[in-house]
Amino acid sequence: MLLRRVAVGGVLAASAVALAHYAPALPDSAIAKPARQFGLPFSGAPGPDTWLLGQGYGNTTGAYRQRRSTYVNLQGLHAGLDFSAPCGTPVRAIGDGVVAEVDGSHGSPPHNVVIDHAGNLSSLYGHLRVRSPLRVGQRVTRGQVIGESGDSQFTCVSAPHLHLEIRDRSHQRLFNPVPYIAADWETLALAGSFGRGYEYDLAAPRRWQTPESQPEVRRGGRILNEFARPWPPAPGGAR
After folding, report:
1. Whole-angstrom distance, CA of residue 174 vs CA of residue 79
2. For 116-172, how does the pLDDT look when each residue is reduced to its tens digit (9 = 90+)?
3. What are 190-206's pLDDT values in tens digits?
4. What angle do CA 197, 159, 227 make, to 5 degrees?
5. Helices then strands, each counted (H, E), the chain
6. Cβ(175)–Cβ(166) below 8 Å
């Protein structure tokens, strides 16, 4: 009987996750506005031996080059923040909430965690080194360790970093985390290890060129950075 209850519970949990992924996007009126209500996912000061902001959210040069492949379902944009950090660096919840998924279907391997917050917001922590010990349904508090940072290439020397996203609860809308997280972004943007610059559209060269001005992503929407006059050009000259 116990096994049957566990099995039924697993099916229900999986169904809930599936429904979340195929649910309609929530309207603006149901989603908390950005008010720097969250904290950073790491403790301590940034630096070359601790953690740094690697790639920003949005119209980055790295996302532009992969807008028709890796990011085609995210309107061609990098839909989160990448924080460079040595493997094993403790990752902390950015706000109070409830664990919604551990190693769910959101990618960012090898391991990920999703936490639901007030205001119909969810935070995703990707590229964790090992499976988080947290349980689905467990309450967490801001600053609580929820896992360890890892490497998207599984080596701990290739691309060690944490990928952090803020979404609506339906997982259809992905938001710029910068106005949601209280941090000195001007200073954090000064240093980083890869791809923090933004792609220019020379027809509108000031658009989407700062950390704060990046647009929201709608899953499956049209590519936003299919620029007629891009700079820098993609490798090989292909637009």
Report:
1. 6
2. 999 999 999 999 999 999 999 999 999 999 999 999 999 999 999 999 999 999 999
3. 875 555 589 999 999 99
4. 30
5. 3, 14
6. yes
Q: How far apart are CA 161 and CA 91, in angstroms?
A: 11
| Encoded tokens for 221 | 């929407």
Decide if 110 contacts 205 (C-beta within 8 A).
no
- Strand locations in 50-177 (E): 52-55, 81-84, 90-92, 97-102, 111-117, 121-128, 139-140, 145-148, 150-151, 160-168, 173-175
SS3 62: helix
CB 148 within 8 A of CB 130: yes
Residue 105 has pLDDT above 80, yes or no: yes
Residue type, 76: G
Structure tokens at 133: 């010990």
pTM: 0.89
Tell me how far apart the terminal alpha carbons of the chain are, to the nearest angstrom.
59
Mean pLDDT, to the nearest integer, of 88-112? Answer: 96
Alpha helices in the chain (DSSP H): 2-22, 61-65, 185-188
Per-residue DSSP letter, 119: T
